[in-house]
Design goal:
About 40% of the residues lie in helices and about 10% in strands. The chain is mainly α.
Amino acid sequence: MSGGDAQLHRPGPRLPVPIPIAVALSQREQALLAVCGSCHRTVWTTGRITLDPGAPGIIPGRAEMLFQIRDDDSNVVVRLEGLLQTMAKDVTAAGPCAVSIERIHVGVPAAMNASIQDAVEAAAEVHTPMKSLHMHSGAGRMRISFAILMPAGMLFVPSIGGISHHWTENASDEDIASGATVFVEACRRMLSDVPVEAALWEGCVARPRNRPITPTPAAGGRGSPATRPRT
């Protein structure tokens, strides 16, 4: 409706999907499900679909779909990406639309620091006995970004109904409070115990990138001209 008047449009020609390509896509889908069925930790999300030009009264001429595949085994991600590429080629060959796949980012699975995870597990056993478990995480940006800079660990609180990576994801206040308590206890254990792999922490000083560490000035507060940072 526009301005109170109904807009009537003559229906255009339908573009049915040819039977052969429909069968081929069904077969690819079965292959995809078979791969996912054998990899119980695989997460595949289509979190963004963009239509161009995106106006309510214009039939889109282009569409983009953003896929994210997460698994702790890089080979599984490669296999699933290969199936996506094959499906795109099948659709392009059948027409009338062309489909292409562009890889925009590849993450490498990163292992968490064992000492930190042990501290988290011990803290969880004290405050939430028999309620914690080890699990793989798909939070790639967080774990990889930290793991390449310093020893890292991760702590999660359960989502209501086990729903994750979904717009309805939520957590109860009680679980959030328990998670905060476990976090504090894990930090206390790491700080009060023998330093956790101190050699690995050496050099992990928060400072701007590409700025060298300036030696500590001598007594008197002013370093030599060779060691004073430029301003």
